Amino acid sequence: MQFSVKDLNLNIDHTTGTVEFQSSAFENAAFLSRNAVRCHSSGKTMNLLSPPWSIGHVDMHQKQSTPHGNLIGSSFEIKTNLPGVNVILRLKLSPDNAMGFIQLEIKNEGATPISIERLTTLDILPGDLHLGDAEIAEPAIYSNGWQSWSTTGAYGLGDKQRSSILGPFQNPMVINPGTPKPKGGNHFTSDMFTVIGDRNSRVGLLAGFLSQKRQFGSLEARFDPAPSLKMWANGDHALVKPGSQVQTDWAVFHFIDLDMPEPLQEYLKAVAQAHDIHIHRKSPLGWCSWYHFYENITQEAIQSNLDSVVSLSSELPLSLLQIDDGFETVAGDWFDFDQGFPKGLQPLVQNIKEAGLTPGLWLAPYIVHPKSALVKDHPDWLLRNKHGRPVYAGFVWNTFTYALDLTNPHALEYTCSVIRTAVEQWGFEYLKLDFLYAAALDGKYQDPTQTRAQVLRKGLNALREAAGPEITMLACGCPLGSALGLFEAMRIGADVSGYWEPHFPPVSPLLRKEPHMPSARNALQNILSRAPLHHHWWINDPDCLLVRPDTDLTLPEVQTLATAIGMTGGSLLLSDNLPALTKERLRLAQVLIPLIEQRAWVLDWFDAQTPSHLRVNLSGPTGDWYLLALFNWDDNPSPLRFTPQAFKLPQEQTWWLHEFWTGAIGQMSETKPFTCSDVPAHGVRVLAARQYQADQPTYLGSDLHLSQGLEISDWRVGDHEVLLRFDLGRQASGKIDLYLPGQPEGAWFHGQPALVHDQGSGIYTLNIEDVDGAELRIKRPV
User: Fold this and answer.
1) Which of 4, 180, 289, 556 is the most buried (most CB within 10 A)?
2) Is 405 in contact with 411 (CB distance < 8 Å)?
């Protein structure tokens, strides 16, 4: 049996037990094969589709209008070799963009319960994948980690996927139990979605799931001897009782141009449509207690920083103040306050609100400290393994922690009561919910019919309902697909740290390559590799910016962190002791305000394990310009070379360049690269690129704002003068650089004469103070 839509052909052969998809890009891709549906019944493991099987009801060429466009679909009911158990395969194909959608359903109409191990929705064998007319010359893959902290990035031929050596100390937190752990080179895995492509032809295949409501989706690729790809939904051995059925989340695949500004856009939009996601709120801007005080917070420490936020509001306008871990006695006992909060949290919340700020609170509702009263009072609430012992949720707070079994209704209700209390009684309006993976660990759930994904999704739904629609919620330590449509913001990387590499004395030297542990390097990895998710699925949370001088981070490393956070458009939370910050260090944060809030184009997202090229397209009164960043990930100083080709700018054009952190000014063209020499280890250079026009005054940039242009609210070039107005929403002082084709005859700032410094080659500099709302007039020569 066969049907076709454009270049998409489907072949069904019940004698060999395969349903195969073919196109010019594939020789063969199996939707169903003999190993596609693995289950357990009567103590035996079996493949439901071992041939031969017979085809029952068939619906061909169904036309359907969907949020993903007009689709043509077909469905096939397949009678398996287990009496009463049938498999339904649903396919939808888009004639417009050759995007395919796949879903499997298992119907148990027999007399025996079955449990599902995995449901394979795509299986491309070695040698069967083609991404153009030629063979794949330089295969690569984009690997997405399971949850917030799980490392994400691209790998090429000969690479080895980053992994942890910490086993039970960390893997339960960051690794999906249903996703294999690669040990050698050319073997890669991904969660929810992946892109496998050719770095030479610049064509890729995106394969993934639209949701993780029903199962966690896993993908596995090998490059030896030739690229292959498998995609499946993890059944987690959930029980399918007689008279019931189980469906996979819809899987999707389509081909992409790796060099597009947003190569993942069609997939990201389809996922957002499936969850009715609309981003309305602005990125959070505030202060968090964690990275200075950690658990050693007190009411006095919070109040002291609140007072500083208020006193600094004219130059550092923050709107959120978040109380982090340490207010409670131990995780799990959320209503028992630490001695540093003798009056609880309500007085602080009242003070935060009276100061005009949003009160925020950190909670970890699903993870439990083994010494908590909850463990003693409600041992039946804990998730346990097959031996009846509590499942370890990873090594946190210097101990192996436990997790709640949310299929126990009392445990689920307790987590909701914590949220309701925080919102309704204590008065918090922003919640950071952490360690959410703990609801989806590998264990023996009290309800055996639920997959881990279903347990977590139900739990997160319950928390959303408990909080109410007006509360801003941030998910952290959360499997990405589980939070879709429920949270306004999502942590997308590892915890930041005051250290560049993972630090855990006395074994720090052994942990340098750990990919998931807290560190500035690991946080930056995902800030860049997951930048495309911002404002598609949620507001990206890159974690906090640390600017104080007494960390182990160098000033260039702080500038790198500030650049990545500022240019990728997500939230900005400071986490230093504000009363102790110097003006110089405070300025590192000030220059990011107001937030840029745009998605960055990560140009080498598919070409490097850690991307180094960022571009943001900006527009304002001064015209259009491009903000370009290039990072030095080396452990030694190194030159950084900017070219139009590397940043996909028009090569026939000459560009003015203005570097933010050093103030360097130069030009760049196809034949004239711009080189920044001796950029410090782990440093960055950020250039504003504007078109060179010899006869036109040009705003080159400033040190007032990272964007080097958004600080300008008005720019007018007349025959006799140039007028500028500034709008930062905060008080600031600094310098601006202009290109003027003729020497100015005078300048006035705030109505007073201003000194103009001639730098040569038509470049002029002005040092200005109290710029917010100010006006600058420059008289041009007649």
Assistant:
1) 289
2) yes
- Write down the mean pLDDT value for the chain: 92
Residue 6 has a pLDDT of 38
Q: Which residue has the tokens 């006869």?
A: 695
Strands 85-93 and 139-143 come out as: unpaired
Compute how many other C-beta atoms are within 10 angstroms of the C-beta atom of residue 745: 13
Q: If you compute the radius of gyration of the chain from its CA atoms, what whole number of angstroms results?
A: 28
pLDDT per residue as tens digits for the range 511-541: 999 999 999 999 999 999 999 999 999 999 9
Largest interatomic CA distance in the chain = 95
What element of type H or E holds 302?
A: helix 299-311
Burial 164-174 (b: 16+ CB within 10 A, else e): bebeeebbbbb
At residue 73 the predicted structure's pLDDT band, cuts being 50, 70 and 90, is confident
pLDDT band, residue 210 (cuts 50/70/90): very high
Q: What is the 3-state secondary structure (H, E, C) of 433-499?
A: ECCHHHHHCCCECCCCCCCHHHHHHHHHHHHHHHHCCCCEEEECCCEHHHHCCCCCEEECCCCCCCC
Query: 10 Cβ partners below 8 Å, 6+ apart?
Result: 2, 3, 4, 19, 20, 21, 22, 74, 91
Q: Where are the beta strands (DSSP E) in 280-319?
A: 285-288
What does pTM read for this prediction? 0.94
676 bridge partner residues: 640
Local structure of residue 533 (DSSP, 8 states): G
Angle at alpha carbon of residue 383, lines to 382 and 386, rounded to 5°: 130
Does 661 have pLDDT greater than 80? yes
pLDDT confidence of 676, banded at 50, 70, 90?
very high
Q: Under a CB-based contact definition with an 8 Å cutoff, are residues 128 and 18 in contact?
A: no
Mean pLDDT confidence for 646-658: 96
Q: What angle do CA 154, 159, 161 make, to 5 degrees?
A: 65
Question: What DSSP state is assigned to residue 387?
Answer: T
Sign of CA dihedral 601, 603, 604, 610: negative
- The pairs formed by 502-508 with CB atoms below 8 angstroms and a separation of 24 or more are 503/552
Three-state SS at 152: coil
Answer whether residue 1 shows pLDDT above 50.
no
Query: Minimal CA–CA distance to 713: which of 658, 771, 767?
Result: 771
Instruction: Determine contact, residues 427/357, Cβ cutoff 8 Å.
Output: no
Cβ pair 217, 232 in contact under 8 A: yes
Q: pLDDT tens digits, residue range 433-483?
A: 999 999 999 999 999 999 999 999 999 999 999 999 999 999 999 999 999
Amino acid at the residue 213:
K
Within 10 Å of residue 34's Cβ, how many Cβ atoms? 15
**Does the pLDDT at position 25 exceed 60?**
no
**Beta bridge partner(s), residue 108:** 85, 244
Residue 121's CB is within 10 A of a number of other CB atoms, namely: 27
Whole-angstrom distance, CA of residue 300 vs CA of residue 83: 68
d(CA 530, CA 144): 8
In terms of DSSP bridges, do strands 430-433 and 358-363 run parallel, antiparallel, or are they unpaired? parallel
The strand pair at 684-691 and 655-659 is best described as antiparallel
Q: Which of 88-102, 594-608, 629-643 has the lowest mean pLDDT?
A: 88-102
User: Can you give the three-state secondary structure of 97-111, one letter per residue?
Assistant: CCCEEEEEEEEECCC
Distances (CA, A) of 323 to 65, 265, 509, 581: 47, 35, 32, 19
Partnered with residue 39 across adjacent β-strands are 46, 116
Q: Where does the pLDDT of residue 366 fall: very low under 50, low under 70, confident under 90, or very high at 90 and above?
A: very high
Instruction: Please state, in angstroms and rounded to a whole number, the distance separating the CA atoms of residues 15 and 610.
Output: 47
Instruction: Give every CB contact of residue 27 below 8 A, 6+ residues apart in sequence.
Output: 127, 128, 129, 130
Which of the four pLDDT bands, split at 50, 70 and 90, describes residue 26?
A: very low
Place of tokens 């993908």: 219
